[in-house]
Amino acid sequence: MVQFTVGLCVFSLLKKRTVDINSLKVLFTSLPGRYAHALFDEGRKSSCLDEILNNFEKLEKYFQDNRQVKNLLTGCFLNKKDLNTCWITIGQHLGFCPVFLSFIRQVIINHRFNIIKRMKYIYQVALAKYRNKRSVTVLSAIDLLPEQKDEIEKLIYRALNEKIIINYDVDERILGGIKLRSEELDIDISLASQLKQLGKYFKSIRLGLDVNES
What is the DSSP letter of 144? Predict the structure, then answer.
């Protein structure tokens, strides 16, 4: 089932494989893109590009394990001074590099944490471009098993035949199946997407019935 699902994603990816430069420009000049680009520039100056990506992963894992702390630190419960102190403490506890800690504090102060995942994704794209590689992000509802990742990577490498950086991320909202993101492209064959399409189908049927009855 995993192979069939990934096969469909890769087939869609191949059909859209040519990168539209204007689309990438929109990606990098969007609000999360501007944050990600500024972070990338600071990371390059400080020679900590990989460390920043690792810090994103640490933060995600920490918040997954500490939901109440996440709500406290990303909500409007603390004043700016206390919030800043808490983030410095968390940053030191998780071993954030100075560039990432400064970045995340600014994100929180500006109330932009709701787009942090998009910032991370665009940062990954920028990092891959910097290394002359294509960035592919695989989204799943739960952590994939090592053998599933191996199968996915074989299919993607075989299909695209170019230098690739593959990133994995968990998004419980997709419910099941997977999503593939490659630069400006989104290939979605998740369960959530299928249920959404099914809902639209039944709604259209209902509207048709209402029209006929009237």
Answer: P
CA angle, residues 55, 61, 63, in degrees to nearest 5: 105
- Distance between CA atoms of 14 and 70, rounded to whole angstroms? 38
* Residue type at 149 in one-letter notation: K
* CA 195 – CA 73 distance, rounded (Å): 33
Pairwise CA distance, residues 122 & 135, whole Å: 9
Phi, psi of 162 (to 5 degrees): -155, 170
What tens digit of pLDDT does each residue of 132-145 get? 877 788 888 888 78
Query: Which residues does residue 182 pair with via DSSP β-bridges, in sequence order?
Result: 136, 185
CB 174 within 8 A of CB 191: yes
- How many domains, in total, are found in the chain? 1
| Residue 28 near residue 37 (C-beta atoms within 8 A) | yes
Cβ(122)–Cβ(28) below 8 Å = yes
The domain of 8 spans 2-213
Phi and psi (nearest 5°) for 136?
-125, 125
> Residue 114: which of 24, 32, 26 has the closest Cα?
32
Strand spans (E) along the chain? 134-140, 164-170, 178-182, 185-188
Q: Residue 13 contacts by C-beta under 8 Å, 6 or more apart in sequence?
A: 136, 156, 159, 160, 180, 182, 185, 187
pTM of the model: 0.65
